[in-house]
Each structure stands twice: as structure tokens, then as C-alpha cells.
Amino acid sequence: MSVTLKYHGHSCFSIAGGGVVIDPFLSENPSAKERPADIKCEGVLVTHAHSDHLGDAIQVAKANNAVLVATYELALYCQRQGVEKVFPMHIGGGHDFEFGHVKLTVAQHGSAIVTDDDIICFDNACGFLVTVEGKKLYHAGDTGLCADMELLGRLNQLDVAMLPIGDVFTMGMDDAVIAAGLLGAGLTVPMHYGTYPVIPADPEEYVARVQKNGLQARVMQTGDEIEV
Ligand code: NI
Ligand code: MN
User: Fold this and answer.
1) Is residue 225 part of a domain?
2) What's the total number of domains in the chain?
3) Can you give the CATH number for the domain in which 192 is found?
4) How confident is the model at residue 39 (pLDDT cuts 50, 70, 90)?
């Protein structure tokens, strides 16, 4: 059985026709085509609190009465913002939800909400290993290259890996190509580039370099859907 993966721009993807949405950042995303109200889901997965990931997650979770999954501290923060169903987790932990299995993976990155007069820090960011209909999809979140990716690839036959390539805040091109090799996923999809002038990576270059190493990669445009 196949699973649909849809790209909403930046680091936002939905899996399984709206079962799960990851990092719904739409209303403030200059490249997004959809509004938060367009997103239908049972689960909202948030890799970390930075505004380009937490984005519209609270609104989307409320509107869908969906369960919001994040690291413990961020999940409880979202609960205090009025999200009824939250499921706090932490790195290394997994859980079976109705929409599939979710495991939190290491991401070498920070997690904070920056307001005009405060910075609320949540310590760890994470990635997600999502298993739906027997398909394993890995969303790296925002992260630098890390050796944990080799272990993740060795222990899991990944069908798809979504990897940041934009540099500055995350892996850049060179490291993302190395990450694709460590993970050995059936397919990798680049993300977290081009949204802002500071992260202007060329996704076609990423794809060409990964393919040169004998692995599959493809660029998804905002709105694209693929069957995994
Ligand atoms: Ni970030
Ligand atoms: Mn980011």
C-alpha cells in the first residue's frame, strides 16, 4: 500500500492524505499556497519552536481537534495556548497513534520562541520517524549533519527522508548530500531552502549530487504530492 506525501513549502509536509502534518508554517510563509484552514489532519507534529516550524501548528491542531506531538516542554506550552490534545514525547521515544507510529529523533538544533520582549527556550529540537501503512518516513527537522543519521539508516529501511539543505541554520548542500548517504533512504526530498534570501540553495544541484552517489532524490514543489 502506498502513502501520499504532500509538500506545503519550507519544512511542511503532510502524510497519508491529511493523517499527519509536520511543521505547518503557512500564514507567514511567503511561498506557501495554502492557508492554515486548508489543512485537514488528525496529528500535528512539531519539530521545534522556531516560528518557521511551530508556525500555525496551534491553530491547525485546534481547528482539527488533532493531537499535537512535540517534545515535552513544547507540547505543554502548546497545551497552555489552548490545544486540547497534546502528546508530549522526547528524543528516542516512540508511540503508536491512530494515524501511525511516531518516534522522535535527534536533531542538532535549538528550539525557542522569540517575542518582542522575551526569548522562551525549549532546549531540544527533534526530527520525526513516522511509520504509516508500513512506510517509514524520516523528517529531519532543522539539524546539522550528525552521526546519528548513520544509525538511523542502519536500523531502519527508510522509504523517504526529508532533509534541510539551506545552510546557515541547518545542514547546507555538502552536508545534506553526506546525510543522504548515511541514511540510505529509498528517496530523499530537500527542504528548508529558498524561503528567505539567506537560505538560497539550489535543490536541483542537491538532487544531481545525490543521484551521482547512486541514490534517489527529487525536488518537490509547493503543492506537489508523491506516492511513497
Ligand atoms: Ni529552527
Ligand atoms: Mn527553520
Assistant:
1) no
2) 1
3) 3.60.15.10
4) very high
**Of the bound ligands, which one is closest to the alpha carbon of residue 52?**
2
**Segments forming the whole domain that contains residue 22:** 4-218
Q: Which ligand is nearest to the CA of 125?
A: 1
Q: For the segment 160-204, what is each residue's pLDDT rounded down to a tens digit?
A: 999 999 999 999 999 999 999 999 999 999 999 999 999 999 999
Are the CB atoms for 104 and 128 separated by under 8 Å?
A: yes
22 within domain boundaries: yes
Q: For residue 196, which ligand has an atom nearest its CA?
A: 2
CA–CA distance, 103 with 128 (Å, rounded to integer): 6
Q: What is the Å distance from ligand 1's center to 194 Cα?
A: 15
Query: Length of the chain in residues, anyone?
Result: 228
- CA 100 to ligand 2 center in whole angstroms: 25
Look at residue 111 and tell me whether its pLDDT is greater than 90.
yes
Residue 131 lies in a domain: yes
Ion ligand 2: residues, CB within 5 A, are 52, 142
- Distance from the alpha carbon of residue 10 to the mean position of ligand 1, in angstroms: 11
**What is the whole-number distance in angstroms between the Cα of residue 92 and the centre of ligand 1?**
20
* Residue the block writes with cell 529540537: 125
Q: Which among 56, 37, 33, 36 has a CA at the least distance from the CA of 46?
A: 56
**Three cell numbers at 11?**
519544512
**pTM score of the predicted model:** 0.97
Does 116 map to a domain? yes
Cα–Cα distance between 71 and 87 in angstroms, integer?
Answer: 9
Query: In the prediction, which pLDDT does 195 show?
Result: 95
Other beta carbons within 10 angstroms of residue 26's beta carbon come to 24
pLDDT at 49: 98
